Amino acid sequence: MVKICCLGAGYVGGPTMAVIALKCPSIEVVVVDISVARINAWNGDPLPIYEPGLDEVVKSCRGRNLFFSTDIEKHVSEADIIFVSVNTPTKTRGLGAGKAADLTYWESAARMIADVSKSDKIVVEKSTVPVKTAEAIEKILTHNSNGIHFQILSNPEFLAEGTAIEDLFKPDRVLIGGRETPEGRKAVQALKDVYAHWVPEDRIITTNLWSAELSKLAANAFLAQRISSVNAMSALCEATGADVTEVAYAVGKDSRIGPKFLNASVGFGGSCFQKDILNLVYICECNGLPEVANYWKQVIKINDYQKSRFVNRVVSSMFNTVSGKKIAILGFAFKKDTGDTRETPAIDVCKGLLGDKAKVSIYDPQVTEDQIQRDLAMNKFDWDHPIHLQPMSPTAVKQVSMAWDAYEATKDAHGICILTEWDEFKKLDYARIYEGMQKPAFVFDGRNVVDAEKLRAIGFIVYSIGKPLDPWLKDMPAVA
Ligand code: UDX
Ligand code: UDX
Ligand code: ADP
């Protein structure tokens, strides 16, 4: 029986291993983590992350061939294949701060693997890491190996949160990078055999190590670039009277461009896009390619611009002041169907509104109050993000409240900002909400989920990203 051990029971490690266990009953999969609380949660109910379909998958194989444990050394030493899926946040201090990936967790994982291994292992890089990390890890492993052979593979994960299980069941592709030596090829084949339990062979791509590592950064950079491109267009649409949805549809019909990932929004968030682009920028700079670095940096700058543009629109529409006004925030997660708030645009929008002394009432169906407080109090590293404000002052903290539902959040509010595209926000009783609000009542739809005409018929003044402006907004001062 093949044994797999995964280091890191996070958003990537947890769902990926659960699906491998489900699809490969002959393989024993143990997910380990240094966090006892996380492992306890994976062994309990509810699971530590919200992901549609995940519960069913975990419940059907937990205790059979899927295990969650804190006994890291035991399971690493017993495994044939070790996936490393630990966190790689952006460095906040030292060389490359604000851009380079912090590989502390990775390095300590590699040293531990070298220390406890008593048989040959395949070590699979699963978390996104800078190009050439595999080489560094290989050095750590081989210099501490005691005669044991390690093969390093890069097998980047492409799942998106909210659709992780679907993406894992039917991946567009599985990418495996390895050394081009007989041992390297053997290791690639061993991992290929795991995926071949459910992924058609023509979707399993094999490359050299560095191509696999770079492909992950490139794919995320291209995806983020599409969003920044359509968001840049959204500003121009508002200025000219074009409708970004119509433009995106027309553009996406070109089969060379394709229709997906062209939804204008208040900005992209999530743990990957910004981190991976910053990483790419850093690698370009280190390799003497400043023009390429600047090209990709612009994708983040437009994203920051989009968030500040949204805040400016809110403030300017409401007579240039939101001071003391209650603003309801509907949605805090970085996208629907997840409770994850990493890099969510809601953090910057809330901080922007709080900076203008608004009272903010937040409702999100999956994000806890504690998480929101932590996010708003967090100090952002000082890269050249104009919008990332300082942590909130104690007075600003008092301006934030949490609501149990959208109706409570919007009660007596002057305005509503929709920041996550949760399905339930499409179905709210907006006539009831309008009744409970101060007048004029504003809706700022950062995800284009509401039917603006219907809301206008009720009496709302509605701003939708990239759409022809409400007559009210046209008369307001221009947004920078
Ligand atoms: C992303 C990649 O899609 C995935 O392949 C990779 O493995 C990890 O990073 P994720 O961050 O989970 O996944 O979600 P994704 O669906 O890509 O959305 C990222 C952000 O872009 C969200 O804030 C989302 O709301 C935003 N977005 C997405 C848009 O604003 N418009 C779009 O058209 C699509
Ligand atoms: C383009 C658009 O494709 C077409 O829809 C529009 O109506 C007019 O402009 P055209 O300029 O004739 O058409 O050719 P196209 O095939 O788009 O190529 C433009 C340039 O891009 C060429 O120099 C081509 O060599 C280059 N190219 C194209 C690349 O370098 N790489 C590619 O992957 C594709
Ligand atoms: P991702 O979104 O990439 O999955 P997460 O932050 O959700 O990232 O998960 C990473 C997990 O890795 C965390 O639960 C963290 O506790 C765990 N971790 C970090 N270092 C180690 C290590 N050396 N051994 C085991 N687990 C680790």
Automatic annotation (TrEMBL):
Catalysed reactions, semicolon-separated: UDP-alpha-D-glucose + 2 NAD(+) + H2O = UDP-alpha-D-glucuronate + 2 NADH + 3 H(+)
Family to which this protein belongs: Belongs to the UDP-glucose/GDP-mannose dehydrogenase family.
Family matches, as InterPro entries: 6-PGluconate_DH-like_C_sf, NAD(P)-bd_dom_sf, UDP-Glc/GDP-Man, UDP-Glc/GDP-Man_DH_C, UDP-Glc/GDP-Man_DH_C_sf, UDP-Glc/GDP-Man_DH_dimer, UDP-Glc/GDP-Man_DH_N, UDPglc_DH_euk
Name recorded for this polypeptide: UDP-glucose 6-dehydrogenase
The encoding gene: UGD3
GO cellular component: nucleus
Residues reported in the UniProt entry to bind NAD(+): 8-13, 33, 38, 86-90, 127-128, 161, 272-275, 342
UDP-glucose/GDP-mannose dehydrogenase C-terminal domain sequence ranges: 328-452
Molecular function as annotated in GO: NAD binding; UDP-glucose 6-dehydrogenase activity
Pathway(s) of this molecule: Nucleotide-sugar biosynthesis; UDP-alpha-D-glucuronate biosynthesis; UDP-alpha-D-glucuronate from UDP-alpha-D-glucose: step 1/1
Lineage, highest ranks first: Eukaryota, Viridiplantae, Streptophyta, Embryophyta, Tracheophyta
Swiss-Prot/TrEMBL keywords: NAD, Oxidoreductase
Enzyme class, UniProt record, top EC level: oxidoreductase
Organism expressing this protein natively: Acorus calamus
Record carries keyword Disulfide bond: no
GO biological process: glycosaminoglycan biosynthetic process; UDP-glucuronate biosynthetic process
Record-listed E.C. numbers: 1.1.1.22
Active-site residues, record numbering mapped to chain: C272 (nucleophile)
Free-text function comment from the UniProt entry: Involved in the biosynthesis of UDP-glucuronic acid (UDP-GlcA), providing nucleotide sugars for cell-wall polymers.
